[in-house]
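Cross-check.
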Amino acid sequence: MERVEYERLAALDRRLWWFHGLHAQIIGALARRGSPGRGRVLDAGCGTGGLLARLAERFPRLPLFGVEFDAGAAAVARDASGSAIAIGSVNALPFAGGSFTAILSADVLCHRGVDEAAALGQFHRCLAPGGLLVLSLPAYRWLLSEHDAAVANVERYTASGVRRRLAAAGFTAIRTSYWNTLLFPLMVIRRKLGKRSAGRPESDVALLPAPLETLFRILVQGEAMIAGLGIRLPFGGSVLATAVKP
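Predicted model, tokenized:
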């Protein structure tokens, strides 16, 4: 991504409503299907470390690791989370096979420069048998927009497409759902009808007025609670997937 987008992430990945929802979904999936009290967890494509910092708060004794392609973002993630951060690509993870009991990855497979099949193969290789993979990915290719261009996204997904990719990579016990459902109509309007920037593409990563931030945070965290009940939402702005290495 452009440097300015990493700077936005560093400033907002613990504050913005969307990240609260993302982190709640991933941590909830790990708690439901993983073993957060033991083993080692990798955030593959950890960005500036917001998810790792929240994981450290939730599971203070859990050994956490990250890998990030951008050295500057890796340094920020290391400071923010206190986790061990390697500099490298998800296309060729710098870890031994079977190193982790869980691998988490949020909005990474969709990036320009990521070889989707290679990355999934690396996740499979680096998970221990019985290990859990948790993915969150942007939904619906028809929603590709200026935001995606700004954050280097070149792909968006459907739940069925994610299931096919995970099965082809050798994963089992695959479960998918959507999230960011309640706010999805607003997202469509913003992405397809919103004002375009005149110069370099700009992302939607920006704080809203405080009342809207609070309301949106309540809604996405409520969706995470619904997911915790085993209810799958039929559409939304993102796909959440969990899968197991046999």
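The first strand starts at residue 41 and ends at 44. The radius of gyration is 17 Å. Passed to J.P. for a second look.
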